[in-house]
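Board notes, transcribed. Complex of a protein with HMH.
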Amino acid sequence: MSFSQDLLTRAQPTMDAIMVHPFLKAIAEGNVPDDVLNYYVEQDEHYLKDYLTITALAVTQTDNHEDIAKLLDVAQFIGNESKAHEVMLGITGHQVENWRRGPETLLYVNHMYESAYRGTYADTLAALLPCAWSYEVMGRELVAAGANNEQNPLKEWIELYAPNDDSKSYTIWRFEALDREVAKLTPQQQEHVAQTFLLSLEMEWRFWEAAWVQEKWQFNI
Ligand SMILES: Cc1ncc(CO)c(N)n1
């Protein structure tokens, strides 16, 4: 069994929990409460800025030309995600004004920065992967369930993340790169990479949850 196949088995319970999270159910039904959408967009603006920076850090850790080209494509795609945010803000009429990272956002991006600054290239790939992978699975499942119907105000948002061609995965190259890179590591380092991936995946669940419960810092500073 490949490293990433084993990883997917270990990741399954977390992924299952993400897919049934009430926030995702509300996206499917097109009835996410406004304050949840606003919280999500504000935190995701922070998240994506950091994600872009960490993607750039990943570029500096490898000399594999194909990976570099793919990572630059990812950087390009992150620009499209502002459009996804506009879909959500179009529903609520809100403007982004909270420029403070919430607790879960900070935990998540710090985990990714730590992986990039202190880990191997494989750690950085692993830290970045659950973001793309969980949204691909989500997009695919939402479209399969017909959630991107004309009545759903989040139709465009959903379609941004669903693969265009059903058979094509936009994250498969990342798993292949991960398998190639971990082959260079010791078993101990490989387990570190696995933990890095699984922690980012848990952070995906926590990111939805934080918006759903409107998680706040204790003090306003
Ligand atoms: C937290 C989070 N994870 C994944 C994505 C998809 O890029 C996103 N926009 N935000």
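The chain has one domain: 3-212. The mean pLDDT is 96.
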